[in-house]
Amino acid sequence: MKIALSRRTTLKQRQARRRINWRAQITAFLFLLPALLALTTFTWYPMVKAVGYSFQKVKLAGGSTWVGLDNYRRMLGNPLFYTAWSNVLEFTILSIVLGFVIPIIVALMINELRRMGGIFGLIAYLPTLIPVTIALLVWRQLYAPEGGFINSLLAQVGIPAQLWLQNPLLVKPAMIVIMTWAGIGGTILIYLAALKEIPQELYEAAQLDGFSVWQRIQYIVLPLLASRIAMLLILQIIFVSQVFAEPQLLTQGGPANHTITPVLEIYRTAFDRGDYGLASAWSVSLLLVLAVFSITYVRLSFRKDEASS
Description:
With about 300 residues, the chain is an all-alpha fold. About 80% of the residues lie in helices and about 5% in strands.
């Protein structure tokens, strides 16, 4: 009798747990539903639509015509396609050489400033709060050939004025400086958060062993930040691949297409020339490149979570 009662009690408990689990799952789904609807409406649906348009000659006024791979043939047969991706490659290399190391150095310096680190971290984040359009207008004035602040400083030491945004050799480094300045705040905060996760016992042990600041950074900080650095490197490549505002507002893709990018060409093809099918083919090429780096980023994220757990 007791065994039968215990079995009934256990069965009722299981049924109650299942009801609770179902309720929890339904509640979680309802909370996620607005985000899923927004993601579907503004991300997945446009992506699927763009893939479909890439095989069509799109006429907004009177329907579309199936053209197969014609848009891709036109895209691959256009020298501008290779110029745009070559520019992205150069931007990426420059951003790694010039712009990727600076946030790491600044974050390490701020982390060493135990008392004033919070204030300097806030100062470093300020550029992120400035609207992109306003920031680019200010930078255009700073780079101005005549009367620009940077050329005025160079004149003080006897260096002639430079055509920062008109010289093919200078325009990419000049833009990388702007991108680094605009994104340095968020990157520094991510590094500072990672630095705070390092156990204090490791710093104390290093101090007892007589480590210098550089030895502490070399043997403790950098190895523990390696996974975070790799993830941010992938993110930086993704962001640079989508650069648009800087060439659009500062150079319009010039000089001589030295700052033309896939996103800028997508914009021009779609809205200036009205060729939505070709613009969609460009978008698919960008989507494929970003998908490769996004998958790499996700895999690195999972590895980091597995290592931490």
